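Hello Y.,

Per our agreement to keep a running log of every chain we model this quarter, I'm adding this entry. I've kept the format consistent with earlier entries: sequence first, then predicted structure.
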Amino acid sequence: MENHSSSPRRGPLAGLRIVEFAGLGPGPFACMLLSDMGAEVVRIDRPNAPPMSPLDIVGRGRQTVLLDLKRSEAIEQVLQLLEKADALVEGFRPGVMERLGLGPQIVAQHNPRLVYGRMTGWGQYGPLAQAAGHDINYIAVAGALATIGETGRGPVPPLNLVGDYGGGSLYLVSGLLAALLHARTTGEGQVVDAAICDGVLSLLSNNLSHRLRGLYRGERSGNMLDGGAPYYTTYETADNRHVAVGPIEPQFFSLLCQQLDLPDDLRDAQNDRARWHLLRDAIATAFRQRTLAEWRLRIEGSDSCFAPVLTLEEAQQHPHLQSRKSFENVDGVTHIAPAPRFSRTPGHIQSPAGVLPVDVSVVMARWQKNSSNQQ
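Predicted structure for the entry above:
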């Protein structure tokens, strides 16, 4: 088994230094992604914080420094660390870092090249900026939650994938990388205000386009991509499992009709909403004739856009994911492999979570030495 803690640093962000202030949700996930891409991430947590568990996948790949930010000497140590850093990531409510003496203006005086990443739900300003909230609240206000669920029933939260990670972490990472590129070119750092609300709205761009073009119906499960279309949804099999189908293109839909042996008078009903209920019933009846395993043997891998609905545990055994080594064993714990993949500078899980904290002086000495070597 590969020893990740002693492996040489790899990835396209090798040499990048990031200071992360411990938090929950999208900030830590963003820092996991940056670490997987090679950045050196140092996490600052409070002295009485419980130790991280090796089972915390999101917490992998960084060292932790314990500091009491209510003490002036700790703030001075953080500022010294930030002088050698490329970026900072914090997820506190607006104003908290300023009250600690670590706001963007003060930090910029110590390191004008530093990129200051701020991760919140509502953003740094606006009527709700100081209100508590979580993923479900942000996607509700942004308009995403209202679109997810079944007709006649309430909206269904899509885990915290759309808000925290889709509209939050991924937009923070893209903003940080863009700002870091600008800083390297100009020597000027800047603040990245990554608000989950903003990111979720951005994710809804295609949905808004459909609305403007009159292609979207307001009710849940009334549209192509929300389960309304009988050719883009899930169906139950004979063994009470489920399959997912999505043959949007006519030729793919035609193939599915052949594979399911659907009635001839429904094979031209793909875009006929008046017959969608008949098409849905016919597809459902067909899929209930065989087990999930039988359907997989019969049509998986074809152009009918078919996939079994698997649990995360089952996904680890899927031949496609195994061939791509989508899961990695790190000290006996199953991790999801770094993504995306790079041809010249592959990503790397630098260490599991739960590594013992280090003293801030150790990090500062290393960063000072590395800075001297680069000059």
